[in-house]
Design goal:
The protein has 333 residues and is of the alpha+beta class. It has two domains: 1-168, Glutaredoxin; 173-280 and 315-327, Glutathione S-transferase Yfyf (Class Pi), Chain A, domain 2. 35% of the residues lie in helices and 7% in strands. The strands form two sheets. It has a four-stranded mixed sheet with strand order 4-3-5-6, with helices on both faces. A two-stranded antiparallel sheet has the order 1-2. Helix 4 packs antiparallel against helix 6, helix 4 (176-191) packs parallel to helix 7 and helix 7 crosses helix 9. The protein binds glutathione.
Length: 333
């Protein structure tokens, strides 16, 4: 996983693993917001007015952070408003690449071969990681934002609401405090927790990560025994954020990141929730198991040097472990 330094690509480590062996993720760099009238949002600068056809998303179907944005496009009915370029799932010495792979596309905007060219086009002296998702502005030829939690808020917020064909409020005012707390827990222990655990370079760092993760699973399983989704009978932002990690858990994180204290199927409510979210309209089409499995096992050569894909990575969410009557979806509360 390389990086750009002053606009030049280097196949070097990003120094996110600290001296004590802990993985600490660097912050995303582009933090502007699309708003209804183009005024500045909570961070960054203004000039990005919500308009159909103006914005573009760069994603990997393998990536849980980009998956958040793809789910919002699909579930909220925004696919006719924002078009998408999809990278090849296996990012190696040149980072993310546009190349032949089922479901992957060319760079539909600038015909780049590598995603780092998109960052350089936006900022010729950019220094930092080259990550997905990217929300790109065709009008100014710049990156609006490359932080998925903010891209979700934008797509699900007032800017895009008038353009959405099936808008729903995933951050309703009455649950915002609870959603913020859930997001913090889910991010720290699970979304980022799986990486923190899997990329650990000391036993202590690994144990800290895996313990926090399974404590969070225990707590969430209990909570999901009380209600269908995390804040009641409709999905909110935190349900989507949990889902993009849980759908990668059995095929990848359990083996690849050594998150193997228990399986997801050992948690009756969490697995029911995962399947319930998977079965929400528009969600299945966003899950690409081939991209997910190939990315993690073939690109993370430091932790899987021979690129061996474990047999258990092929998960059938409609199979007997998942569809037994006792884990059928709960009816709406
Ligand atoms: N905080 C970012 C993280 C995005 C991220 O790390 N994406 C990964 C893919 S799962 C990536 O592009 N990694 C490439 C790299 O680190 O070089 C977000 O939520 O948008």
């Amino acid at each position: 996983m390389g990086q750009l330094i002053d606009g030049v690509w280097h196949d070097t480590e990003t120094k996110e693993v600290k001296k004590d062996g802990q993985f600490v993720r660097n912050a995303s760099a582009f933090r502007n917001w699309v708003t209804p009238s183009g005024t500045p949002g909570p961070s960054g600068s203004g000039g990005f007015k919500a308009e159909a056809g103006r914005y573009h998303l760069y994603v990997s179907y393998a990536c849980p952070w980009a998956h958040r944005a793809m789910i919002y496009l699909s579930v909220l009915g925004l696919k006719h408003v924002i078009d998408v370029s999809v990278v090849h799932p296996v990012n190696l010495e040149n980072g993310w690449e546009f190349a032949d792979y089922p479901g992957a596309t060319a760079d539909r905007i600038g015909d780049a071969r590598y995603l780092y060219e998109v960052y350089v086009r936006s900022d010729p002296t950019y220094t930092g990681k080259v990550t997905v998702p990217i929300l790109w502005d065709k009008e100014t030829g710049t990156i609006v934002n490359n932080e998925s939690s903010e891209v979700m808020r934008m797509l699900g917020g007032e800017a895009f609401q008038p353009l959405a064909q099936s808008w729903a409020d995933f951050y309703p005012p009455e649950h915002q405090g609870e959603i913020d707390k859930l997001n913090d827990l889910i991010y720290g222990a699970i979304n980022n927790g799986v990486y923190r655990t899997g990329f650990s370079q000391s036993q202590e760092a690994y144990e800290t990560g895996v313990t926090a993760m399974f404590e969070a699973f225990d707590w969430l399983d209990e909570r999901l025994g009380q209600s269908r989704f995390l804040c009641g009978d409709r999905p909110v932002e935190s349900d989507w954020r949990l889902f993009t990690s849980m759908i990668r858990f059995e095929p990848v994180y359990y083996f690849h990141f050594k998150c193997n204290v228990r399986q997801l199927t050992d948690y009756p409510n969490l697995r029911r929730h995962t399947r319930d979210v998977l079965n929400q309209p528009g969600v299945r089409e966003t899950v690409h198991a081939d991209h997910i499995v190939d990315h993690y096992y073939l690109a993370h050569r430091r932790i899987n040097p021979y690129g061996i894909i474990p047999a258990g990575a092929a998960v059938d969410y409609d199979g007997p472990n998942w569809s037994a009557p006792h884990i059928e979806e709960k009816k709406a509360c």
